[in-house]
Amino acid sequence: MISLRNLELPSEFRDGLKAIAPLFLGVASFAIAYGLLARKTGLSLLNLTLMSLLVFAGASQFVAISLLISGSSFLLILFTTFVVNSRYFLMSASLGTYTRKWSIKWQAVLSFLLSDESYAMTMSRFAGNVADKYYQLGVSLGLYIEWLVFTIIGGLMGSFFGDPQTFGLDFALPATFIVLLLPIIRNWRQVTVCIITGTLSVAGSLFLPTKWYIPIAIVLGTIIGGMLELWKQK
Questions:
Q1: Considering the chain, what percentage of its residues have pLDDT values greater than 90?
Q2: Least buried of 38, 125, 147, 208, by fewest C-beta within 10 Å?
Q3: How far, in Å, CA of 197 to CA of 35, rounded?
Q4: Model pTM greater than 0.85?
Q5: Rounded Cα–Cα distance for residues 222 and 228 (Å)
Q6: Rounded distance, CA 80 to CA 93, Å?
Q7: Mean of the pLDDT values across residues 150-173?
Q8: Which residues contact 45 (CB under 8 A, 6 or more apart)?
């Protein structure tokens, strides 16, 4: 019989688990908000848990819930969530510069566990250190388990509480991303890209249908960042 006490986890995996500690409250609050809102929509505890277990994409889960409330068709929900999650194509492409030599099994597992938070933390780590799959696994798996656990807690609380916005839980995700973003910004080019992309996102949310402003702002921000890097090299 194997004792768990004798299992030695890689130090990079433990570093990844420790790295997500500052994000704990933000992610937990956002997961609880999702559970509350899903229960308010009429989803059972089993269904909202399965969505977190199999989808694991907070923003698209909220979008799906809001579309269910409005009575949208399945095709519209599918298309809208695809648009919202299309940002992961760009995230995966940038991570690919570090992970392309890893095995297909590792890439498949880490692709499923990829989230906005794990991407930001992993890229920040890889930029100044050797890319390590165990570190990314520690970050991603820790966030996945936390999201799942607090989704269930939010679902259980759904019978007793109303709209999660009443408690200010809807601000948890933006606050978490601010914490993730600030340590990564190191020069004026990155500041410029952040300002322009943020401005495009806000403007797009006002004038564009559904969630198209998300991939559009990301693509334009990426292009602008690339142009600034070329300008610096010249």
A1: 25
A2: 208
A3: 30
A4: no
A5: 10
A6: 22
A7: 72
A8: 39, 152, 155, 156
Q: How far apart are CA 203 and CA 180, in angstroms?
A: 23
- Residue 142 pLDDT level (bands cut at 50, 70, 90): very high
pLDDT of 1: 37
Higher pLDDT, 111 or 5: 111
113 residue type, one letter: L
| pLDDT for the residue numbered 179 | 64
Residue 132: closest CA among 7, 47, 11? 11
**Six-digit token pair at 184?**
């990564």
Q: Could you tell me the two tokens for 220?
A: 């334009």
Pick from 15, 19, 11: nearest CA to 183: 19
Q: Give the pLDDT of residue 211.
A: 65
Interior/surface letters 189-214, b for 16+ CB within 10 angstroms, e for the rest: beeebbebbeebbeebeeeeeebbbb
- Structure letter (DSSP) for residue 72: -
User: Two tokens at 174?
Assistant: 């933006």
Residue 228 neighbours by CB under 8 Å, 6+ apart: 189, 192, 193
Average pLDDT over the chain reads: 82
Taking the C-alpha atoms of residue 38 and residue 88, their distance in angstroms, rounded to an integer, is 24
Distances (CA, A) of 79 to 75, 82, 112, 145: 6, 5, 19, 27
Burial of 96-130, coded b for 16+ CB within 10 Å and e otherwise, reads eebbeeeeeeebebbeebbbbbbbbbbbebbeeee
pLDDT above 60: residue 3: no
- The token pair at 110 is 């880490």
